[in-house]
Amino acid sequence: MESVLTRKTIATYAIGSVGTGGFGTLPGLVLLAYMTDTLGIAAAAAGALITVAKVWDVIIDPVIGARSDRSLAVRGSRRPAMILGALALPVFFVLTFAVPAGIGPVASGVWVLLAFLITATAFSLFQVPYIALPAELTGEYHARTKLISARVVVLTLAILLFGAGAPEIKNAFTDAYTGYLVMAIVAGLVIGAGLFISSFVAKRRELSAVEPVSILDNYRAGFAALRRSKPFRALLATFLLQGLATGIMLAGAVYLAKWVIGADGVTFIFVSLVAPAILFAPVWAIISRRIGKERTFVIASVLFGVAALSMVALVWLPGQWVYGPIALAGIGYAGMQSLPLSMLPDVISHDADRHGTGAAGSFGGVWTAGETTGIALGTTVLGIVLGASGYIESVGGVAVTQPASAIMGIALSFSAVPALIILLSLITFSRYPLRKADIDAVR
């Protein structure tokens, strides 16, 4: 474990967020719209399909986490699973958006579900060990913040690249089916490259003798980590809720741009959100060195929540003024991402000091399952809101007019609903007990 992180280690770890940011952004941004506005699948059904795929993630992530711990003990590295995920993901990501035209909504839904299930599995093979690595790369409290801040800068750049660029690729083609397919090919290759390169940051260490374990034992390891660590439970619940809030907004960005702002301004939404996040990720790290990660995280979350709440005015005054509050939300978003992820290694090392090492993968598996749940439920909640508010689905090339109730539902799902969820997340975070002195004591 490095006490002082090298630039190479920081850069190699951070580049993985090109892939994680891309995969975290694109399905949430375009998959629901792809199903409702191109494949003709009802909004509620489309949201349910995405949720099924994410539930699968929740089921397998604890197993992957425990297997990653075993791989570290038996093979000396978490790298093999990460490389496998990096190579498999682009193939099945492209297949997700390769639904043939004219096969009908039911067959299209089954196609997307199966392809996306395998894609999500490949992503988890990389993501779960990736989340566990910071606790093993450095044991220093502020060095972890530096490592994660670099990752978040790359993450926000990736969100901008994929969030703004991918729709432009899709829109360059008059045929929606072709546009989505070309978008998926380009995005899949970039995502896979980022994951593959970052896989090599996983260190090798001496092998250990371990007993064979069953899948049930894998789940027991994950649940044990969740049960025994109060800091982990509080941090995970907070991150899950904030993932739900941002997941709703991410999935709603396309609808907001198309139906509320009055122009196809999804690119401007992402520029407004991500450009401030890129600038302020290092700023949050500096602030946290002065007042602590925990207080800084609360400030960032409150800023995001207030910015979201101000956008309720879209119900009465739709327009491009919304880019201002979105920029403020982007500033808060940078802190909401970097600070919990820098606290997670603290939680892992705190647990290792009390219960023994070797459980970082189990923590990472449960964490990824929780994060996935939050983002997936965001898409589900949006699908339910759209369906309840009367949103009219369509197939590629067919123009529709949405009722006023659907426009209001889109506006509220981008403002009042996320703001309320952020408030709930601050309540769960109030139970997080660790401070810098606790981590220094572990060292």
List the helices and strands and how they pair.
Layout: H1 7-14, H2 16-37, H3 43-74, H4 79-96, H5 105-132, H6 134-137, H7 141-171, H8 176-198, H9 215-228, H10 230-260, H11 266-291, H12 293-310, H13 323-355, H14 360-388, H15 404-413, H16 416-429, H17 436-442
Helix pairs in contact: 1-7, 2-3, 2-5, 2-7, 2-8, 2-10, 3-5, 3-9, 3-14, 4-5, 4-8, 5-14, 7-8, 7-11, 7-13, 9-14, 10-13, 10-14, 10-15, 10-16, 11-12, 11-13, 12-13, 12-16, 14-15
The class by helix and strand makeup works out as: mainly alpha
Note the overall shape.
globular
Strand content: under 5%
CATH architecture: Up-down Bundle
Structural write-up:
The chain has a single domain, classed as Growth Hormone, Chain: A (Up-down Bundle). Helix 3 (43-74) runs parallel beside helix 5 (105-132) and helix 7 (141-171) packs antiparallel against helix 11 (266-291). The protein starts with 6 loop residues before the first helix and ends with a helix. Helices cover 79% and strands 0% of the residues. The chain is mainly α and 443 residues long. The relative contact order is 0.17. It is globular. The mean pLDDT is 84.
